[in-house]
Design goal:
Blueprint (H helix, E strand, L loop, with lengths): L5 H18 L16 E3 L18 E5 L1 H4 L3 H22 E3 L17 E3 L6 E4 L7 E2 L2 E2 L8 E4 L6 E4 L12 E6 L4 H6 L3 E9 L5 E8 L11 H16 L28 E2 L4 E2 L6 E11 L2 E10 L2 H11 L7 E2 L15 H4 L16 H9 L3 E3 L14 H6 L2 H12 L1
Helix pairs in contact: 3-5, 6-8
The chain binds 2-acetamido-2-deoxy-beta-D-glucopyranose (2 copies) and zinc ion.
The site of one 2-acetamido-2-deoxy-beta-D-glucopyranose has 5 residues, from loops.
Amino acid sequence: MEGPPASWILGPAVLLSVLAGLASCHGTCRHRPPPPGEVHHVYLKPERLMKRSSDDLQLKIKIIYDYSVDHLPADKRRLVKDKLFPQAIDYLQRAFSVRRRVGPVLLSRQCATNQYLRKRDDPHRYCQDACADITRCGPVIVPQHHLQQCKVCSESGQSCGPLGPPDSPGVEGSDFVLYVSGITTERCGQENIVAYAAYCQLEAELDRPIAGYANLCPAMISSQPQEFEGMLSTVKHEIIHALGFSAGLFAFYHDDEGKPLTPRFASGLPAFNESLGLYQWSEAVIRRVSRLWDIRGGEMVRHQVHVLVTPRVVEEARRHFNCPILEGMELENQGGTGTELNHWEKRLLENEAMTGSHTQNRVFSRLTLAIMEDSGWYRANYSMAQRLDWGRGLGCDFVMKSCKFWMERQKQRLQ
Ligand SMILES: *[C@@H]1O[C@H](CO)[C@@H](O)[C@H](O)[C@H]1NC(C)=O
Ligand SMILES: *[C@@H]1O[C@H](CO)[C@@H](O)[C@H](O)[C@H]1NC(C)=O
Ligand SMILES: [Zn+2]
């Protein structure tokens, strides 16, 4: 027996997804890389052998719910704990594996003052005089049993050593600890967002984020079924910022051999760019290129864009647009200061989930998997990528020139 034609089946489904899209406007994402003073590098011991088989490197994310999640209304709490985060994590764990496993994850303590010290040939960080009573990851207070022993130096800097309770057991069997909270923060009120996330501590050897937070803005959590897909992709999007796709991490990307793509000082850190408020990446990660933007009165107008130029991203971008001379994938750069380079350029990738504003039918494409691989921290399973149709095969005119220019070209061709 023949079924109804495919278009008949698709019709209502498409209509429903359009309606769902209209109902679930989650606005834009304003991911903020945390200020450098809040990000610690942590020395972790190589993973104890025998814990897991060595070829099973699938990314393991451990979710720790802050008490604020338990204080959400029951329907929201259940949505967050039973569906949203488990499903987001499940996707990300299947999509990525880690290149180097360390563990257990044990976070370093914040200092009582902003004075941190390092000793030569010692990977640990020391506080001047005292550690802080509590250590935070974003808005979340890190449980004491996830913390390393406090390490301090006396005021003279002469005597340094451990102080207070010894190292905790830490979080075993995970590569990344995600602290999830549901706190109505100042940002929730200002930005009309469902959630935001970032990393808070990086592992010292390869700089891979090993802990981060995701805060949900309670008033924006909706338990309406038609909102679910949008919120799920928002949560995945935010966790991807915490895992690696962040302007604050570009300077820490490594190549396949584990070498930093940006030169380091003796301190082990790249240069800090004060005007960006970020560590400065090298041209092996991001380059500025000039684009033909418009033609006014016969005169060409050019503008500068930032493109991500790591190898897999270049390859995927060229293939996606069918443009073999494309330098790399353009990043969004509203305001032009470079501080907003946290997303793919919307004009070029529209409904790709790592663009900065949320539209319907968001997909995590090969490009997003590629940037995560090019961080040097993960491998991606490309069969987890979703098909992106926007821009596909449209060629160099589409991707290297302005939208207006491209449309006028198309019009001329039709005439
Ligand atoms: C810092 O960033 C600004 C803005 O992108 C850039 O113009 C400047 O060249 C950077 N400074 C260094 C030292 O790279
Ligand atoms: C990649 O993902 C697909 C789909 O989930 C799965 O069938 C396959 O086994 C995965 N491959 C690897 C190497 O993990
Ligand atoms: Zn974002």
